[in-house]
Specification:
The structure holds 2 protein chains of 2 kinds. By secondary structure, chain A is of the alpha/beta class. Chain A contains 14 helices and 14 strands. In chain B, α9 links the parallel β6 and β7. The N and C termini of chain B lie far apart (52 Å). The chains are: A alpha/beta, B alpha/beta.
């Protein structure tokens, strides 16, 4: 069955609300408005205002209330409009949700799911185009997911809700209109990265909005006879270091693609893992394709120039292959 | 602010008054011992003493039901103790021992007890308010009749989290008792130096919320006001704001040289010390003799000594367990 990323996410939410009365959705404009990205349209009518809860513009307040509701036995799904606005709620995610289990000596669980849109590419300028997944991936105590395919959009929510610990899900805003066939088995292991294209000569690691660009680059390179493996990291914390290392041991070359700024990026962490775990397997220095170190500009040509693009990935692969 | 000020509360039943007196003493003596142990290096980190403010936690906690949720701050030793966390477990936590109430992972500022619905122990000022709103939301959605009581200092009322949580709780009619322990100083910053509106009830009332104010140095008044406020939350399902006016006798933490307030001011407040004033009142009413008071104090002293002995003898967690309790154990379902 062909469906959009939006429809897949919507189906996952719908299923969660139907299966478990403890699950409820709250966030800005999730109800009457139908969701900023129209993911929850019609839910208010179907599930009612108790479970499809419009919130005031109070990210800190309603994310914190989500933490409290999770402690109190519910299974809240909190939608934060974008990662940019999540900075207003960072305290509750980092200082409460992520820490409560540990600070309480293992007594408390926070089974909370926080969803948020991330990423650039729509000319929304600097305050609506951040990719700050690396900030969250830095924090012990939370799991960070980035579904990049229709299957993962459909499959990640169920295990995220079954996780007794807080899970942050990043949905790249460019993906909502992506359409593809929903695989028959869309169940998702949220501990593992996924090989999206097997290859022998070079490993390209990508996730979220960059996965489709990496796959496109791999297609272009295949036409030239270059055999690229594309690994969808998809679990940004805890990192699946095993799958990363296994791929590098096979191809001996690596390119990491990340929409975060290069300095202090998640790509930097992936490169460090590769160097620590399989330095002597490498036949070439590892390359990174990240966003340029500039706030994302409004003008289309400048925004495009600031972001990882297929051409940049192709060039990076060529450089590590020395072709 | 006179020591002779009459309590606004109805006169306390003798048995209750003695329980309140004993519990205030338990907090006082436990914390005095903590300060001593801090000096000896047995307790490290930050240690925020509640000395002077005991009437607040004591009066308030006695007015709650056992099933109510409590969220507190980093000055929470007394609240934890009176919610039933054993003094031994609190002391062991201070010592960083595995038999501490947070397995030695939290320390003074992060006392927890899930079975007693004591949700910490929060060292982010105002961080507990949204949590309390969420706990109340969970209860409301599950049809559980329970009050979520959130203690915080007046310093928290300058934080965004205060306003966001107050608004959410009032907007959604959540059963939260917001209990502000106004000790007049946010660390070293006096109320008038940090708030444009120093009448805290006026501030809270802007959220269309009922407000109460009580003398936080008078345990009977705190008990009566909390009982009334909690009953209103229980009956109406809507949040209520309660201000307890109190004063911290000791420094903010063990590192504070107290440059921001006059010694005379502290001494003046000490005249209204909650333990001293209740015992004086009971003695005047011939409900307590000095001998009985000393016996009570000695009884409390034994509990403190036993707690310290327990903590000192308790095991340290092996370093091999360092990474535990960051995530749930594999296979644990939600």
């Amino acid at each position: 069955m062909k469906m959009s990323y939006r429809e897949a996410m919507r189906a996952a939410l719908h299923e969660a609300l139907e299966r478990d009365p403890r699950v409820f959705l709250m966030g800005e404009d999730v109800g009457r408005y139908g969701g900023t990205y129209a993911v929850s349209r019609g839910f208010l009518e179907e599930f009612g205002p108790e479970r499809i809860r419009d919130t005031p513009l109070s990210e800190l307040g309603f994310v914190g209330a989500g933490v409290g509701a999770a402690l109190g036995g519910m299974r809240p799904i909190v939608e934060v409009m974008t990662v940019n606005f999540s900075l207003l709620a960072l305290d509750q995610i980092v200082n409460s949700a992520a820490l409560l289990r540990h600070m309480s000596g293992g007594q408390l669980s926070v089974p909370l799911v926080v969803r948020m849109a991330t990423g650039a590419g729509r000319q929304l300028a600097a305050q609506h185009s951040h990719s700050l997944e690396n900030w969250y991936a830095h924090i012990p105590g939370i799991r960070v997911l980035a579904p990049a395919t229709i299957g993962d959009a459909r499959g990640m929510l169920r295990p995220a809700l079954a996780d007794p610990d807080p899970v942050v899900i990043f949905e790249h805003a460019q993906l909502y209109n992506l359409e593809a066939e929903l695989p028959d088995d869309w169940r998702c292991d949220i501990a593992r990265a996924a090989i999206r294209r097997a290859g022998a000569q070079v490993s390209v690691f990508a996730w979220a909005g960059c996965l489709s660009k990496a796959l496109q680059a791999a297609d272009e390179l295949a036409a030239e006879g270059v055999d690229v493996e594309v690994v969808d990291l998809r679990v940004l914390r805890p990192l699946d270091a095993e799958t990363i290392a296994a791929s590098v041991r096979k191809t001996h070359r690596a390119v990491v693609v990340d929409e975060c700024w290069k300095s202090g990026s998640l790509a930097a962490e992936v490169v460090a893992r590769i160097v620590e775990d399989c330095f002597y397997e490498l036949d070439a220095p590892v390359a990174r394709v990240c966003s340029e170190e500039v706030p994302i500009p409004y003008a289309r040509h400048l925004e495009e120039a600031a972001l990882p693009q297929v051409s940049k990935i192709v060039a990076a692969v060529r450089s590590v292959l020395n072709v | 602010m006179s020591a002779k000020r009459k309590s606004a509360a109805p006169s306390l039943d003798k048995a209750l008054a003695l329980r309140l007196l004993k519990d205030m003493l338990r907090i006082r003596r436990m914390e005095e011992k903590c300060a001593e142990l801090y000096g000896e290096g047995e307790i490290r980190g930050f240690l925020h003493l509640y000395i002077g403010e005991e009437a607040c936690a004591t009066g308030a906690v006695h007015a709650l039901d056992a099933e109510d949720n409590v969220v507190a701050t980093y000055r929470e030793h007394g609240h934890a103790l009176l919610r039933g966390v054993p003094m031994k477990a609190i002391m062991a936590e201070m010592f960083g021992k595995v038999s501490g109430c947070s397995r030695g992972r939290g320390g003074s500022m992060h006392l927890f007890d899930a079975t007693r619905r004591f949700y910490g122990g929060n060292a982010i000022v105002a961080g507990g308010l949204p949590l309390a709103a969420g706990l109340a939301l969970a209860d409301k959605m599950q049809g559980i009749k329970r009050v979520s009581v959130c203690f915080f200092g007046e310093g928290a009322m300058a934080e965004g989290a205060f306003h966001e949580a107050m608004n959410l709780a009032a907007l959604w009619q959540l059963p939260v008792l917001f209990c502000c322990e106004n000790n007049l100083y946010a660390m070293g910053t006096a109320l008038a130096r940090s708030e444009s509106q120093v009448d805290l009830c006026v501030k809270a009332a802007s959220y269309d919320m009922a407000t109460f104010r009580a003398d936080g140095m008078d345990v009977g008044e705190v008990f009566a006001a909390t009982a009334k406020a909690a009953q209103q939350v229980r009956d109406g399902g809507a949040p209520v704001f309660l201000e307890l006016q109190t004063y911290r006798f000791r420094a903010h933490s063990m590192f504070d040289p107290e440059l921001y307030r006059d010694k005379a001011e502290v001494e003046k407040w000490k005249e209204r010390g909650p333990i001293h004033s209740l015992s004086a009142r009971l003695k005047a009413a011939r409900q307590l003799t000095e001998k009985q008071f000393l016996a009570l104090d000695a009884e409390v002293g034994v509990e403190v000594d036993e707690a310290v002995a327990f903590a000192a003898a308790a095991d340290r967690e092996p370093v091999s367990a360092l990474l535990e309790d960051v995530y749930s154990p594999p296979g644990a379902g939600a």
